[in-house]
Amino acid sequence: MKTADATILIVPGFGNSEPDHWQSRWEAKLSTAQRVVQPDWNKASRTQWADAIAEAVNRAEKPVVLVTHSIGTASVPHAAPLFKSGKVVGAFMVGLSDWNRPELLPGVPHDFAPLPRDPLPFPSQLVASRTDPYCDFEVAADHANAWGSALIDAGDAGHINVASGHGPWPEGLLRFATFLKRLPAS
């Protein structure tokens, strides 16, 4: 699949992705990319996040490929049952945050736990770091297995965000391009 054949939905994490974040850079670079906007970027509400993603997916005119980070990744299995059948053709998920941990972000209440474990109804990849402070690699690997996602070991990459040195993240863009090529053209 080519990017022109799909709506690329960028699903940032908690607080949104700043201008130097790889997601913001990809959104600016990919002509069919659009950001899913949350009602409140600093409130971890499962219903609000899942509904915003589902609304963006269901109104897209082309097949959808999700590009997620952090809580955006954790939102996908909550939102997937709300997608019109066959609308999402793939998900490139990065840096899962483990919202099953009660104090993931101290002082931030949330209702994301438990993270669903049902297989996702579309091809997906989960890129996980061995040094992510928001999710142990073993937890990410377990969720990837449950969701039927291919697990990509990013090694020592922190949370795969600006703070960990992943502004442009060209390696990620190459992985995303390879993922897209493996998706069937519509």
Radius of gyration: 15 Å
Number of strands: 6
What is the SS-derived class? alpha/beta
Q: Order of helices and strands, N to C?
A: EHEHEHEEHEH
CATH H-level homologous superfamily name: Alpha/Beta hydrolase fold, catalytic domain
> How many H/I helices?
5
Low-confidence stretches: none
Number of domains: 1
Task: Give the overall shape.
Answer: globular
Strand content: 15-25%
Mean pLDDT: 96
Give the helix level as a range of percent: 25-40%
Strand line-up of the largest beta sheet: 2-1-3-4-5-6
Largest sheet: 6 strands, parallel
Question: How does this structure look, described?
Answer:
This protein is globular. The mean pLDDT is 96. It has one domain: 3-Layer(aba) Sandwich (Rossmann fold). Helix 2 (46-59) crosses helix 3. Strand 1, helix 1 and strand 2 form a beta-alpha-beta unit. The protein has helices at residues 22-29, 46-59, 71-79, 137-147, 170-182, and strands at 7-11, 33-35, 64-69, 88-94, 124-128, 150-153. 30% of the residues lie in helices and 16% in strands.
